[in-house]
Amino acid sequence: MNVSPGAAPAFASPRGRFVTFEGGEGAGKSSQVTRLAERLRGRGLDVVVTREPGGSPGAECVRHVLLEGAAEAFGPLAEACLFAAARADHVDRTIRPALDAGRWVISDRFYDSTRVYQGGGVAPEMVRLLEQVAVDGTRPDLTILLDVPAEIGLARAGARRGEGVADRFEKEDLATHERRRLAFLKLAHEEPERFVVVDATDDPGTVAEAIWFAVETRLGLAPAERSA
Ligand SMILES: Nc1ncnc2c1ncn2[C@@H]1O[C@H](COP(=O)(O)OP(=O)(O)O)[C@@H](O)[C@H]1O
Ligand SMILES: [Mg+2]
Q: Is residue 150 within 8 Å of 157, Cβ to Cβ?
């Protein structure tokens, strides 16, 4: 087909919207991703739910290596490169094709987690460079930061895990988790047009309402989408 440069074909779907959830362990990301996806689907929208690390077959393999802690021994830079490799695959295979097809994409963590978690051991400019290469222009329209004191989040994550073993990141100490909380808040402060900070200490229903309000107002659901 012959399409002049820069012109979208007449039948192209409008790009979908990309929402990411961020925050520490036990903040309620996975629960709220599910709730938001159901609510959007209830409005007739086509929603893809995904997560990081992972979200595509290649990236899920890397997820396994990362969360088992197998890459920890290679040092922070190698670990950051693995996150970037996983993200590149995730964006190429899952996120960008879905957005191009007009679908909504909701990701349980994305690059802000890397900025916060890997930012401790790798130069910030290196983290941003890897991010730029991995996402190649595909950036979230809205990022919901679920903010909860580390103590509460870790207690929730511990209760969820039961007798299970803490992963590579869950096992770190309270002070580290609290530092990450502040780092997430700093990112939100730096990009207020992309982020919404939601108090995640409230009950799940109240948190879900705050998220819905943010999605409606920030992403301007069309009336048909809202009332469908
Ligand atoms: N607002 C909330 N209040 C109390 N418990 C919650 C809340 N949100 C989630 N939980 C519970 O806390 C645990 C962790 O929630 P989850 O959604 O898995 O968090 P995350 O994905 O951020 O680690 C789960 O057992 C979940 O049911
Ligand atoms: Mg989770």
A: no
pLDDT (0 to 100) of residue 10: 55
Q: How many domains does the chain have?
A: 1
Task: Give domain status of residue 5, yes or no.
Answer: no
| Domain extent for 46 | 18-218
Q: What is the mean pLDDT of residues 136-165?
A: 92
pLDDT class for 167, splitting at 50, 70, 90? Answer: confident
Could you identify the residue written with the tokens 């941003």?
A: 128
Task: Give the neighbor-by-neighbor strand order of the sheet with 18-22.
Answer: 47-51, 104-108, 18-22, 142-147, 195-199
Best of 34, 109, 116, 156 to mutate for ligand 1, by most ligand atoms within 8 A of CB? 156
Distance, CA 152 to ligand 1 centroid (Å)?
Answer: 10
What's the CATH number where 59 sits?
Answer: 3.40.50.300
Atom of ligand 1 nearest to the CA of 31: 17
pLDDT tens-digit series, residues 83-109: 999 999 999 999 999 999 999 999 999
User: Which ligand sits closest to the CA of 157?
Assistant: 1
